[in-house]
Amino acid sequence: MSTPATTKTTAPAPPGSGAAGPPGVHMVRALVDGVRRNMRQYGMLLALGLIVLLFQVWTGGDLLLPRNVSNLVLQNSYILILAIGMMMVIISGHIDLSVGSLMALVGGVGAVLMVEHRISWPVAVILALLLGAVAGALQGFFIAYVGIPSFIVTLAGMLLFRGLTEIFLQGQTLGPFPEGLQKVANGFLPEAGPQTNYHNLTLLLGSGLIAYVVFQEVRDRRRQREFALEALPTSLFALKVTAMVAAVLVTTLLLASYKGAPVVLLILAVLLVGFGYVMRNAVIGRHVYAVGGNLPAAKLSGVKDKKVTFAVFLNMGMLAALAGLVFAARFNAASPKAGVNFELEAIAAAFIGGASMSGGVGTVAGAIIGGLVLGVLNNGMNLVGVGTDWQQVIKGLVLLAAVGFDVWNRRRAGV
């Protein structure tokens, strides 16, 4: 007697479980989930793209004219340099209110050395950078080893450096700077290669940057998979890399169709790559994140938090000195009023670029994105004739929205 065959029935998958449906639906669902998980990381990058698109339409195409793109880089170079250092300071859980005044002091001392004492500009630049390092180290000592809050120390530094600038310059503007230093702040890379419609050296550098971006992203994704860390879905990763390559390619072609890449852009690229590598891969970078993210845990893990804080402020001092020299050379004069409110611009760029008020969060690339958001806003609003009063209102609202988004995102994540 044969046993009747039994059939096994499977209950239908509940809606939204992902167990059923065409492959396209799963791909879209995975893409949406990836975007939601990485909203904080790529939100301002998307916002930057939308702002560029808005002003490109609003200005009738003037925003992305090759000459205006070059001016955009030159006009915001010193803020971007400051933003890199400020991002590291904020990641470590501190703040620096003195960078604008330190910029003015370094520019003034550099002007005295080069204009009045006729010291060659390369030597004067080295001395000015050392002055910035000493100023940053002094503030770092009081913050790390004496235990005075960074807000108080850097507020005192802001007043001190501004007063010393008035003393050095005797309340007057001093210039002009040597031609070599002016070329660093205002010059462009030289022509090279055969005669074409584009700047060949800029095209070569842009191609190298595209190759580096692709290599870095692929390597980071491979490492995330090796260590079983959360990685972007393949579709979102491909979209991210494509967008980054397109942005670099468009910028390269725009710059190459004018005078080529500004010299200061090359300096920014070196800083971005160098500090980006340090914060991602070096021990000191991980310690900066650890100190800002959870100081008690970092101490228990053996992190020398005082040395980390000291190093962060020393580095901020050197970057402020570099920004001060670039600013003074761009305007070909050192002024006691230079750098006013620049610390606020740098802080705003860091927070817009993804830094967290509680520390431990942020990237060097995010600082550049935040600085570009402010730069494009300033440039676009100037092109369409928005008054300076309304410009301040709009930038304030953008900063408030960026910090509010950070607070909302942390609450949503249960932090």
TrEMBL record:
<dbReference type="GO" id="GO:0005886">
    <property type="term" value="C:plasma membrane"/>
</dbReference>
<dbReference type="GO" id="GO:0022857">
    <property type="term" value="F:transmembrane transporter activity"/>
</dbReference>
<feature type="transmembrane region" description="Helical">
    <location>
        <begin position="198"/>
        <end position="215"/>
    </location>
</feature>
<feature type="transmembrane region" description="Helical">
    <location>
        <begin position="261"/>
        <end position="279"/>
    </location>
</feature>
<keyword id="KW-0472">Membrane</keyword>
<feature type="transmembrane region" description="Helical">
    <location>
        <begin position="308"/>
        <end position="329"/>
    </location>
</feature>
<keyword id="KW-0812">Transmembrane</keyword>
<feature type="transmembrane region" description="Helical">
    <location>
        <begin position="97"/>
        <end position="115"/>
    </location>
</feature>
<feature type="transmembrane region" description="Helical">
    <location>
        <begin position="42"/>
        <end position="60"/>
    </location>
</feature>
<feature type="transmembrane region" description="Helical">
    <location>
        <begin position="349"/>
        <end position="377"/>
    </location>
</feature>
<dbReference type="InterPro" id="IPR001851">
    <property type="entry name" value="ABC_transp_permease"/>
</dbReference>
<keyword id="KW-0762">Sugar transport</keyword>
<keyword id="KW-0997">Cell inner membrane</keyword>
<keyword id="KW-1133">Transmembrane helix</keyword>
<keyword id="KW-0813">Transport</keyword>
<feature type="transmembrane region" description="Helical">
    <location>
        <begin position="236"/>
        <end position="255"/>
    </location>
</feature>
<dbReference type="Pfam" id="PF02653">
    <property type="entry name" value="BPD_transp_2"/>
</dbReference>
<feature type="transmembrane region" description="Helical">
    <location>
        <begin position="151"/>
        <end position="169"/>
    </location>
</feature>
<keyword id="KW-1003">Cell membrane</keyword>
<protein>
    <recommendedName>
        <fullName>Xylose transport system permease protein XylH</fullName>
    </recommendedName>
</protein>
<feature type="transmembrane region" description="Helical">
    <location>
        <begin position="121"/>
        <end position="144"/>
    </location>
</feature>
<feature type="region of interest" description="Disordered">
    <location>
        <begin position="1"/>
        <end position="21"/>
    </location>
</feature>
<comment type="function">
    <text>Part of the binding-protein-dependent transport system for D-xylose. Probably responsible for the translocation of the substrate across the membrane.</text>
</comment>
<feature type="transmembrane region" description="Helical">
    <location>
        <begin position="72"/>
        <end position="90"/>
    </location>
</feature>
